[in-house]
Amino acid sequence: MERVEVAGVNADPGRLLVVSDLHRAGAREQARRGFDDRVPAPGIARFLARSFRRYVWLADPMAHNHRLGQILGRERDVTRVVANGDFSLDTAFVGVSDDAALESASEALGELRAIHGGAVRGVIGDHDLGKKSLVGGMGGPRWRSLERCESELGLPRLWHDDFPGWRWVGITSTLAAWPVFRAEGADGELARWDRAHREHLDAIDALFSEAASSGRRVILFCHDPTALPFLARMEGVRRALPGLGVTVIGHLHTPLVLRLGGWLAGAPRVSWAGHTVRRYTSALREARCWRDFRVVLCPSPSGIQLLKDGGYLVAPWPPRGGELALERRMLG
Fold it and tell me: What is the spatial distance between Cα 97 and Cα 143, in angstroms, rounded to a whole number?
């Protein structure tokens, strides 16, 4: 069975800082400028992807390393930090199994830990494990990336912290939602991922069930909301849902995408338009359950090109009045 990290902590008054999708580009990833254009793909697909990145998503994804320093400079009095996944730019599309991506992720986590030390909790994101390129179908999740996240970056695949009346749970969304990503995995690794997926869900279910039995409310940290329908099928999770405090997600980068996800919830799955569309529509088909999980998005520090809406979340901890009051702060 999968190992679960447990930390007993007290509830001294303080503040929680949540950051997500830092996408650090260290020196070796910086040397791969234009990495998207080097992926083999038809001309029209490359043109559309380039236009989307330039005008909608991020014109220069390597220009935002300074954002984390801005946040840490502004938020000096926090006592707990959760970094909700995606620490590197993943320019080789295989996560931190790539040495350059590992270097980037180590820098981002090192900057956080240099100031906040053991108060930092980290969640594994999809880019930390590997994610196929937007066009061209290059890369995908790699088991070595999961191993390195745990052994070299200090990111457990599953953790929980217990407080009076509360339990924080951090999961690995790609592992929980593995059937959605399985077609992108490496053939020789699939059985290992399949087994880890089942063990991950069982361990998450046990943590939620224990929380419900002990009267603790859960705060869930989950990078990609694609995992939430898989959790909703688990008996222990369903028992705890009525008292769930909030689910903090990342992955979507901007509140605009979260709103679009709400509008498109229940849309049919599209399997003929490539892996990216298949993955997104698979998530949207069951997105109605996001409401049950009380989803709150932590935006990326860079936001998106179209809106310039980068930011992060802060909240008093322990919660005041029985609810976690997360406040989104903009970087501009």
Answer: 8
